[in-house]
Amino acid sequence: MALNQTFKSIADPVRRQILEGLRTQRQSAGEIAAKFNLSQATVSYHLKLLKQAGLVSVTKEKNFVYYDLNASVFEEMLTWLYGMSKGDKGASK
Known about the structure:
- There is one protein chain.
- This protein is an alpha+beta fold and 93 residues long.
- β2 (56-61) and β3 (64-69) form a beta hairpin.
- It contains five helices and three strands, in the order ααβααββα.
- The model has no long low-confidence stretch (mean pLDDT 86).
- It has helices at residues 3-10, 13-22, 29-33, 40-52, 71-86, and strands spanning 27-28, 56-61, 64-69.
């Protein structure tokens, strides 16, 4: 997992809103774009970055592209964060 890319991707509030919208159901790019006051190109850019970070998966069906939340990446992030809190604080000086 590329943590830097993942954290950079979720640093943007629009991308976080997109991810929140995908929590409950998959959506097409058009459905996602309809919820924002942004151009289709801007939404596509955000989706591309989320896909590159592995935060969303893409399924193509006929003429539509659907985006799903990839929860396993969040599980990996949480595991890493949890490990940081449990680390031996005296080991690295």
